[in-house]
């Protein structure tokens, strides 16, 4: 945790991605305001970074800039939860990365996040653009270590099911069933 500038006893909420207005990162400073022992770590860079840094003055926020490889893996491994406020992303690869790292995800109930995050199972979904709902979901998740760990493990299992080997195994299973139906003169159904 020291590698990303956090203190012992802090809960670390991680954002990884482009720091741009359309990613709704503007919600993050207000979302963590008033949450005890919480530090927000923002990994990434972009056109909204200077403005976001201005809005975060006096708050427990750390900007790391762009990270990749081992440094990015350390950031994920050092966090307690992942936040994804974007309501425009069609998939959200970083959600997959966070889940593969065993992190529960708090994401906007929009776009690709709704296909990846099961509310109350591997994270929470909040009403897009509503900072009070985002804060409530973060508070709920961070207040219960058992729930946070259980949801993180569930996310990891879900991410493993979406790995390339897993997807290929599933696809090959469909082909095998289709071919066996054809040999038997039946239509797949």
From TrEMBL:
PANTHER family: SULFOQUINOVOSYL TRANSFERASE SQD2. The keyword Transferase applies. GO terms for molecular function: hexosyltransferase activity. Keywords: Transferase. InterPro entries: Glyco_trans_1, Glycosyltransferase_grp1. Residues 4-148 form the Glycosyl transferase family domain. The keyword Transferase applies. Coiled coil: none annotated. This is Glycosyltransferase family 1 protein. Pfam families: Glycos_transf_1.
């Amino acid at each position: 945790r020291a590698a990303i500038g956090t203190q012992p006893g802090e809960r670390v909420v991680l954002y990884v991605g482009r720091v741009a207005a359309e990613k709704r990162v503007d919600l993050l400073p207000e979302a963590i305001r008033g949450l005890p022992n919480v530090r927000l770590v923002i990994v990434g860079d972009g056109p909204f970074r200077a403005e976001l840094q201005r809005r975060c003055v006096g708050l427990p926020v750390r900007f790391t800039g762009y990270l990749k490889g081992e440094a990015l893996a350390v950031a994920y491994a050092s966090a307690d939860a992942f936040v994804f406020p974007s309501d425009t992303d069609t998939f959200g690869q970083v959600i997959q990365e966070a889940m593969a790292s065993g992190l529960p995800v708090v994401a906007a109930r929009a776009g690709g996040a709704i296909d990846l995050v099961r509310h109350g199972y591997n994270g929470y979904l909040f009403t897009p653009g509503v900072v009070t709902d985002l804060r409530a979901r973060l508070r709920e998740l961070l207040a219960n270590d058992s729930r946070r760990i259980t949801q993180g493990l569930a996310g990891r299992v879900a991410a493993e099911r979406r790995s390339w080997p897993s997807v290929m195994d599933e696809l090959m299973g469909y082909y095998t069933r289709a071919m066996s139906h054809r040999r038997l003169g039946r239509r797949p159904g």
